[in-house]
Model the fold of this input.
Amino acid sequence: MEECIRFEGVCKSYGKHTVLQDFNLTVYSGEFLTMIGRSGCGKTTALRLINGLLTPDAGRVLVDGKDVAQTDLIELRRGIGYAIQSVGLFPHMTVEKNIIYVPSLSGKQSRETRAKRVSELLETVGLNPSLADRYPNELSGGQQQRVGIARALAANPRILLMDEPFGAVDEITRRSLQKEILRLQRDLGITVVFVTHDIKEALHLGSRVLVMEAGRISQLGTPEQIKTAPADAFVRELIFGQEE
Ligand SMILES: Nc1ncnc2c1ncn2[C@@H]1O[C@H](COP(=O)(O)OP(=O)(O)OP(=O)(O)O)[C@@H](O)[C@H]1O
Ligand SMILES: [Mg+2]
Done:
C-alpha cells in the first residue's frame, strides 16, 4: 500500500509539557484511520502536525513523502480538508461564503457555479441548501458542525482530517453522516484521519483504529484486532468497560 502520511520520531511539547514523545505512525493512501484516546492525550496535536499548523520539536512529519516543514503550506493545505473540533466558522460570513472560502474555490468560477457547488455540498452533509444565506449564529450547533464538514470537503481534498466532527449532532444525523463520509471516502479514495471519543464510531468507521494513551500508541490495528485482542488494560476498558 502506498504511504500517505508518516510521523517519524515526532516530539511535540507545549512549554514544559510534552504531548508527543517519539511518535511514529504511517497512514496509507485511501485508508480510514480512526483515533481514540482520553482527553488531552494528543489527538488534535497530531492532526495539526499533519497540515503544518504545528511544527514538531524533533522528528518529521511527511505527507506524500515530503517533509511538511519543507513544504509550501498553502499548497499543502489545499489538498487537506480539516474539520475542526470547535467548528470554527467565520461568524461574519454567510454559510455560502464560509464554504467557498477555501482557496481552490475562490477566484475563477462564476457565481452560479459556486452556488451550485455549495448546494451540492450542503445536501451531502444533510442540510437544506436554503441555509446558504444564513450566518453561523443563525444555525444550531449540529448544523454549524455540518457546515464545517461541507467546508472541509469543498476543495475535493485528497486527505481529510476530522476532529470529533460529529460531536454536536443527534444520533440519527450522526448515523447518516457516518454513512455519507464512508461513501465519500470509498468513492473518492481519499485518506481520512478521524478523531472520535466514541469507540463504537471508531470501530465502525475505521479500516484501522489507533488507540492513544498519553501521547503514545496503545494499539494500532483493524477493528477486529482491537476487539478480539486488546493490547492492554486501557484498550480493554475502552472495549468492554464503557458500554452504555
Ligand atoms: N496551545 C497549547 N498550549 C499549551 N498546551 C496545549 C496547547 N494545545 C494543547 N495543549 C495541551 O496539550 C495536551 C494535548 O492536547 P490535544 O489538544 O492534542 O489533546 P486531545 O487528545 O485532542 O484532547 P481532546 O480529546 O480533549 O480534544 C493537553 O494537555 C493540552 O492541554
Ligand atoms: Mg482534541
